Amino acid sequence: HLKKMESMKKEMKTQKDLRVNQADAKETNSVNIEKLEGSTWLDDTIINEYGKLLKEQFEQTAFVFSSHFLEHLSKHGYKGVKRWDKNVNIFEKKFVFYPLFERYHWFLAVQNNDAKTLSILEPFVPLDEIIHPPKQRQFNPSLRKLRSSKLDLIIKDHQERLSIIHNQYILKHEKLPRGLTFKTMVICAPEIPHQSNGNDCGV
Asked: Would you state the torsion angle of the CA atoms of residues 79, 81, 84, 87, taken in this order, to the nearest 10 degrees?
């Protein structure tokens, strides 16, 4: 992931007047290269520009939606986003990626057409940065219980997001093959790479 981000950074620096056209958001913002430095949080222009690079590199196998997709779908329904994949049959791709951002946190929904799954990948583990000294080990069971409770809430919210994408978009899609449905799931660390700090969720 870091190598891809470095490659992206070099490519964007060679384009002096690079701008990201976010027609879906009805505005155009310049890419702030400084967002790729250190512990600075990534913004939607960086994420969406990286999505464009992925679409170009993996045109035959992948499609990447704008990070504004879920918000627009929730507000306007299928009719509000039906042209966002214009001239593309997303069901002929192997993967469809939905970058998502809520509550100051980036995460990713992945539609795997071969496996017929729709998943949200959640790299963040609640309270993972809290480390108890040896003398306070007796509090660890309480910490684990609190962590489990917070993770359950995160998973529940993600399941609702998956339901919106699946029921309001995929099942209503005019190009959906007859009889095709997707199994929805939330995948968390350690099943996927673990976010080890509070600022690298977009990486």
From this structure: -20
The sheet carrying 105-112 orders its strands as: 62-64, 95-102, 105-112, 117-122, 183-188
Q: List C-alpha distances in Å: 128 to 25, 133, 146, 200.
A: 34, 14, 11, 14
Q: Is 20's pLDDT higher than 50?
A: no
| pLDDT tens track for 127-170 | 555 544 455 555 566 767 777 788 888 889 999 999 999 999 99
Q: How many CB atoms lie within 10 A of CB 158?
A: 23
Yes or no: say if 74 and 89 are a contact pair by the CB < 8 Å rule: no
State the CB neighbour count (10 A cutoff) for residue 129: 9
DSSP state of 90: G
Inter-CA distances, 173 with 21, 83, 87, 185, Å = 25, 11, 14, 20
Q: Which helix (H) or strand (E) holds 19?
A: strand 19-22
Is the Cβ–Cβ distance between 64 and 55 less than 8 Å? Answer: yes
Say how far residue 99 (Cα) sits from the centre of its chain. 3
